[in-house]
Amino acid sequence: MEVGIANILQILGALAFFIFGMKMMSEGIQRAAGSQLRNILRTMTKNRYLGVFTGFLTTALVQSSSATTVMTVSFVNAGLLTLVESAGVMMGANIGTTITGWLVSILGFKIKLHTLSIPLFAISVPLLFSNKGKLRYWGEFLIGFAILFLGLSYLKESVPDIKGNPEVLAWLQNFTNWGFFSRVFFVLVGTLITIIVQSSSAAMAITLTMCAQGWLPFDVAAAMILGENIGTTITAELASLVGNVHAKRSARIHSMFNIIGVTWMIILMPFFLKHLSNLMQHLFNIEDPFTSAIDMPLALSAFHTVFNLTNVLILIAFVPFLVKAAIYTVKSKGDDDEDIRLTFIQSGTRTPELATVELQNETAHFGEIVYKMTDFTRRLVNATDTKKREKLYKKISKYEEITDRMEIEITEYITALAGEEITKTTSIKLRSIINISNDLERIGDIFYQISKTIQKKNEDKVYFNEEQRAYLNKMMDLVDTAFTEMIRNLKYPHYSKVDISKSQEIEHEINKFRDLLKDQNLDKLGTTGYNVNSAMIYNNLFSSFEKIGDHIINVNESVAGKI
Question: Which of 212, 226, 497, 510 has the fewest beta carbons under 10 Å from its own?
Fold first, then answer.
């Protein structure tokens, strides 16, 4: 039996068809129920056990464990899920992805689905022209479903029938007599296939197809499926590369969970497969999957499900240890790599009086986070290296997002206290804290706007002269001094006793210096060698720093109760 380039291209094309259908299915269902899926992940992960169910449900719906794990990693990166919560979701995703195997083995090999695909196109294509967005997305889902099984049908037809030519795969015998090491070898093969096609579902379809065509024996295929469980973790690992340390740790938990599970299964596989074979023959009245290629896909789907379910039941109690192992193996690169979130009010609402104490601490923490942006901005103003600038742009953007989130969370926390009986003093303090949070968030926005202005300046190759740069640094020195005083006031335990006279003096100096720079800039406009574009950007920047000073004094006045 000869296999030429045309045959290989036919197989690759059929596989591409299958993967495209899977992608279309996944994207369609995510668009149709995207916000609901995100809400499920955010609200149904109160503990790891509920997280397992959430991960299973989400993956069963979108038919892609990769989509669930990437979504989970992104939520961990955004601070919406903790590592413990994400671990449960990842475990559930492993169970949910086994649904694909059942669909392929029951429908793909027991029914001629290409005869059903055309009617599916007839139903779904009109939906694409609907004015309602959700109907269009459901149409995409159904088309993806039809394409997926058309691809599977073509894959079955493209794979050469070797039943009459068993010598073609005689080379496999060279790898099947090593016992434990044979199983390890085929686990690595399954891992490699999954990494290449970037989809455990596609890798599973390839494996089941090869089994149905008589290419692989039962135990070899089972080992490859174990490898596919490891290979699928690469998607989450890749997604975490652009995330913070918590995202990387979440992906690492997923990898460790799968690797540990595959390890114990490799050891027990001979006994496990034997008992599973007997059980499948008894329950489903099928032939022995060790000898029957026709019934092997069904038995492999059962193996995949039972393995993942058993692995979850064994390891779910050890989630805290997996989290510790992830923290130990994925080291933080410092504050810039850490996810910054609320520190003092994570434990839920308290009585208004106690909540006020927690909120004051949180607000001071918020002020310190915003204060870090002054250092980033100073370095950006003075940076000449392009790579350093790029890092600072990203850092300032990240901190601006943090300030947005912290303001929302602090406001929501205060809103949750609205139903409680609150004294007049506490009410005034809570109102002050809302105002402070709003001003701190606005400072974050201004720093971000400054970074975008500098980015545009550098892209347009507009440069400051030495005097402009020196004055900007002096303005930032004044803002730095104002920040230091603001942080001191925010940390003062009794807001009503805070003296803001020094803060007012600094604010006066900032305003006075802004006026001086404005007059000087106007006087020099039109003189030889004084660049107009540079002067406009220069004016924009020192005016923005003065606005930051305005918000800083607003914070100080809110602390003192002068609102």
Answer: 497
Which residues, other chains included, contact 423 with Cβ-Cβ below 8 Å and sequence gap of 6+? 352, 353
H or E segment and range at residue 295: none
Nearest 10 degrees: Cα torsion 81, 84, 86, 89: -130
For the domain covering 344-559, report its CATH number.
1.20.58.220
* DSSP class of 168: G
pLDDT in tens, 321-369: 998 999 888 887 765 555 556 666 654 445 666 678 778 888 998 999 9
Cα separation, 163 vs 363, whole angstroms: 72
Amino acid in the structure at residue 544: S
Among residues 205, 20, 29, 175, the alpha carbon closest in space to that of 108 is found at 205
Instruction: Please report the beta strands in 65-151, taking only residues with DSSP state E, as ranges in sequence order.
Output: none
SS (H, E, C) 259-290: HHHHHHHHHHHHHHHHHHHHHHHHHHCCCCCC
d(CA 416, CA 200): 43
**Could you tell me the pTM of the whole model?**
0.56
Can you read off the two tokens belonging to residue 363? 């607000």
pLDDT tens for 221-280 read: 899 899 988 887 876 777 677 667 877 888 899 899 999 999 999 999 989 998 888 888
Can you give 498-510 as a three-state secondary structure string? CCCHHHHHHHHHH
**Tokens (6 digits) for 530:** 């004084």
Take residue 545 and report the two structure tokens written for it.
């720093």
Give CA–CA dist 452/450, Å, rounded: 5
316: which DSSP letter?
A: G
What number of CA atoms fall less than 13 Å from residue 144's CA on the CB side? 21
> By three-state DSSP, how is residue 133 classified?
helix
What is the 8-class DSSP label of residue 177? S
Residue indicated by tokens 């979504």: 71
Give residue for tokens 């015998």. 173
Domain locations in the chain? 5-157+175-329, 344-559
| DSSP conformational letter for 545 | H
Distance CA 265, CA 505 (A): 71
